[in-house]
């Protein structure tokens, strides 16, 4: 069943409240590290991304440093993220472009961001939201899964989900929508065994296989 904008607002506010957040609580983060971490997050679990990112940035903190780092060193540091050989090449290429073309500063323009090697819509939107607080809706696996599960959209790909969400989500919620849904997906609306009995929006959810035990 299609949700009205009023229902969508209630869903978002209830999720915020259940997570102990009554408003957006994000703090701006380092744009370059957000960019690289999001590239590392592709096709891997959150904890693997965190480990790989921590190891990488403990040794190389800037685009200039990473652009000059030996590829083997990068591969070794980001190995927990999986597909590390491909990702290491992308990280090095991106770092070189940021260091040389943009003088070490990550661009704030969506089109410029997606022109970087290996940077898609989700990564670009993450940079806009988390680094620059520019309204956007990054769609990762959590956002895609939950948006379909609860009935906000009926889509098959994250790209389709983003396209539909920007039409129906009030813009005031865009900057923390991803953050809320990621946390909600990790703590309650989990992939295989959602904790429906403690879900704050269970009455508004379209998921047919509710786990109410």
Task: Estimate the strand proportion.
Answer: under 5%
Terminal residue distance: 24 Å
- CATH architecture group name of the largest domain: Orthogonal Bundle
Uncertain residue ranges: none
CATH class value of the largest domain: Mainly Alpha
Structural features, described:
This protein has 213 residues and is an all-alpha fold. The chain folds into two domains: 88 residues, Helix-hairpin-Helix base-excision DNA repair enzymes (C-terminal) (Endonuclease Iii, domain 2); 102 residues, Hypothetical protein, domain 2 (Endonuclease III, domain 1, Orthogonal Bundle). Helices cover 55% and strands 0% of the residues. It has eleven helices and no strands. Helix 2 runs antiparallel to helix 8.
